[in-house]
């Protein structure tokens, strides 16, 4: 009998060495588009920072503005000792109202399977019409929204469990 379950494994002890190529490839942003920065902290269910996690950002709409990048529309960022991460994002032109500014994949210790999320900007005028957000219960939507912190800066924390748990999506 065939199974729909696929195998997976935890991040393991060596991602910093094995994934260094992708970190290098996305460390410096070369873009023709305006940019923003999304920063935050990866946290466990108790609120403690996860200092050995990874956030991958996929930005398909940014790829056209990042042709000089080795991996256009992609970032791989390790969290620091305080669980913090920082992602530079090229904004598509024209802006895609109601769409995520990026799709995130989260890797962390103890996860048997990586987690998928999406990030929206709080000042996006199309949030109320978002096809993706409309599928998420209203009280959980704030976990997907990066809060404006100043000019071109946003804050989005990722909570792996608990009352503040970030919405994670299953793709089938």
Could you outline the blueprint of secondary structure elements for this entry?
Elements: H1 15-18, H2 20-27, E1 35-43, E2 54-58, E3 74-78, E4 84-90, E5 102-107, E6 115-121, E7 145-150, E8 153-155, E9 158-159
Parallel strand pairs: 1-8, 1-9, 6-7
Antiparallel strand pairs: 1-4, 2-3, 2-5, 5-6, 7-8
Plain-language structure description:
- The model has no long low-confidence stretch (mean pLDDT 87).
- The longest helix has 8 residues, at 20-27.
- This protein has 172 residues and is mainly β.
- It is 7% helix and 29% strand.
- Strands 1, 2, 3, 4, 5, 6, 7, 8 and 9 form a 9-stranded mixed sheet that branches.
- The chain has helices at 15-18, 20-27; strands spanning 35-43, 54-58, 74-78, 84-90, 102-107, 115-121, 145-150, 153-155, 158-159.
- It has 2 helices and 9 strands, in the order ααβββββββββ.
